[in-house]
Specification:
The chain has 300 residues and is mainly beta. It folds into two domains: 99 residues, Immunoglobulin-like (Sandwich); 196 residues, Jelly Rolls. It contains three helices and 20 strands. The strands form four sheets. Strands 2, 3, 6, 7, 9, 10 and 12 form a seven-stranded antiparallel sheet that branches. Strands 1, 4, 5, 8, 11 and 13 form a six-stranded antiparallel sheet that branches. The longest helix is centred in the N-terminal third of the chain and has 13 residues. The radius of gyration is 24 Å and the shape is elongated. The chain starts with a helix and ends with a strand.
Amino acid sequence: MKKILLAIVFSSVTGSLAAQNIVTENFDVFPAAWTKLNLSSPAGGNMWGAGYAAAQANIAGGAGAYNGTAATSYAYVNFNSTTGNNTISNWLITTPITLMNGDVISFYSVKGLSGGTDVYPDNLQLRISTNGAATVNPVGNTGVGDFTNLALEINPTLSPTGYATTWTQYSYTVSGLSGATSCKIAFRYFVTSGGPAGANSDQIGVDQFSVDRTLGTEDFFAGNFSIHPNPVTDVLNITSKTGVAIEKVGVVDMHGRTVNQINPASSETAQINVTDLANGVYFVKVQSEIGTGFSKFIKN
């Protein structure tokens, strides 16, 4: 019975936490700070920008944006990225975003149909640079610069049926980072034999781009912080493993109540006095600039 009760109470402590949204972009106003690079060869007149009127672009059967204040509230790019029959490489790049392992990058995308019954295959890549503000941008229609991490790709084989014609969500879970890392995320419209005279390329939309972080997991805590001693008699020490600043430390009892709390002024170390607590099992809750995590400890 005690084991069952412990599991239920622990769930109530950690389960109250949700995902932290790091970035959301619904393209109600096109983000002017994002970088647009048309590296198609030769470059045509089309760049990434706000969506066309729904009926004109035939996006999502004429419905337009996935969400937003208007039918044109989405990011849009099309076959006029190049001329004739050539390779399209048209980039839309975010400003720096701090990512960590476990973050989920998600967005909705759709292929428009401007050719009626004729289907011209499209392709979209999601790429990541881990160099933040120092990122080297790609050069040429085959270059990727520092965006060497191909996180996901929609329709890499350029199949006529490989890109959804209704808004569809895609997601990627970040991995392989050593800790919190300043990154840039890029959408690359990349189509060979594209253009107005090419066998491939038509038009695509992107909407509801977001980066979300799961809070309150023991894995998050273990990856970023350590505590000692455990069991503890008087003072519990908390240390950042990755240089992440500790903003707040709390002690939570088995009923989910915060019984002690300190604000260590964004330091990489903190100490919290637990001398006055009754002996038993508690959780230390650490809030940082990149998220919040729990870890269990025993007070003797």
